[in-house]
Amino acid sequence: YFYVGRWYNETNRKKWSTRIFMNNLSDIATVKEILTRHGFRFSKSLGQNFLINPTVCPRMAELGGAGPGVAALEVGPGIGVLTRELAARCDKVVTIELDKRLLPVLGETLQDFSNVTVVQGDVMQLDLSALFQQEFAGRDVIVCANLPYYITSPVIMRFLEERLPIRSLTVMVQKEAAQRLCARPGERACGAVSAAVRYYAEPKVLFSVSRGSFMPAPHVDSAVIRLDIRQPGDYEHPLSAEEEKQLFRVVRAAFGQRRKTAVNSLSAGLSMDKARVIKAMEQAGLPPAARAEQLTLDDFEVLSQALFTEE
Ligand code: SAM
Question: What is the pTM of this model?
Fold first, then answer.
């Protein structure tokens, strides 16, 4: 960059300074300068906390699997600090940003990359299957994002449930959400969403990120997690769409009343006779006093079958 910079400096001073700027999007002074020049104010309701710790984005991109032959989808680029790390490593990057005010900023900060497409829209509303068809057909795709925290779980569940063709999801989320999303059966943080994530993926907490790594600093610490998506061939006993639906009804009902035994929660949540639930637990080889967080995904699958199979 030094030599490129000097060359630009001799011919066009402005271009030179812009070039140096863009390489430094986690520097507070640089971020403030760009945002002030664009008259930008942070929106709390859009979860706008921008990363200012220079080590985080390169680490996220590397551990998320960015590299040659790979395409990346990002959600919420902000001013493009992670986008640039992805673009420098991947063949192609598509990034979805809801806030229209950030488009001119991104136009500037991503100007030296020709492999980035910015899509303006709401990640929860866009037709993601169509987007994948159009932008990523035939490519090996990873998702890598510092997610807006107000929609962390819905975004993750949308990617998983729609079975979009992705290899992995590497996302920054609130620390508590990371624990919940990656919890194993038996752990206190384990809930319905932990079981759902484990059905679709192999989750892992990669590293923690303190609140001071963001501008403005949020009130909570964060963590980066990676979900390695289970591919169709990875399922020992693939379930039909109907069986999947039943499984998640059972999981949600079992975790519905946390202080109760699974039998009581299931009976209430599924409006089922308690004796029938106890019998299904027995058929599944599960102790009747078990609590939902003690059951594995395999337990839930067998239990779901026992509950919904007509005698
Ligand atoms: N990636 C940047 C970084 O790490 O500094 C910004 C991350 S910030 C936590 C979340 C970003 O998501 C913001 O840019 C915000 O405008 C955007 N965003 C919020 N809601 C969104 C939605 N529904 N769809 C797409 N982007 C959204």
Answer: 0.90
Residue 183 · residue 190 · CB < 8 Å: yes
Distance 182 CA to ligand 1 centre (A): 22
Phi-psi region of 12 (alpha: psi -120 to 50; beta: other; left: phi over 0): beta
Please give the C-alpha separations between residue 250 and each of 195, 197, 232, 300, in angstroms, as whole numbers: 11, 15, 22, 7
* CA atoms of 49 and 247, how far apart (whole Å): 36
For residue 18, list its beta bridge partners. Answer: none
Strand partners, 94: 73, 117
Amino acid at 261: T
- Residue-wise pLDDT tens digits, 124-135: 999 999 999 999
Pocket test for ligand 1, best of 97, 144, 173 (most atoms within 8 A of CB): 97
How far from 202 is each of 169, 206, 222, 310, CA to CA, in Å?
A: 10, 12, 20, 32
Strands 140-146 vs 168-174: parallel, antiparallel or unpaired: parallel
CA 207/CA 172 separation, integer angstroms: 9
Residues 6+ positions from 79 with CB-CB distance below 8 Å: 25, 31, 34, 35, 50, 102, 105, 106, 109
Sequence-distant (≥ 6) Cβ neighbours of residue 90 within 8 angstroms: 66, 67, 68, 70, 71, 72, 115, 142
The tokens describing 57, both together, are 């984005």
pLDDT < 50: residue spans in the chain: 1-14, 16-17, 20
Instruction: Give the pLDDT confidence of 265-311 residue by residue, as tens digits.
Output: 999 999 999 999 999 999 999 998 999 999 999 999 999 999 998 55
Q: How far is CA 191 from CA 179, 204, 239, 263, 297, in A?
A: 10, 16, 21, 16, 12
Which atom number of ligand 1 is nearest to the Cα of residue 48?
8
Neighbours of 249 (CB within 10 A): 16
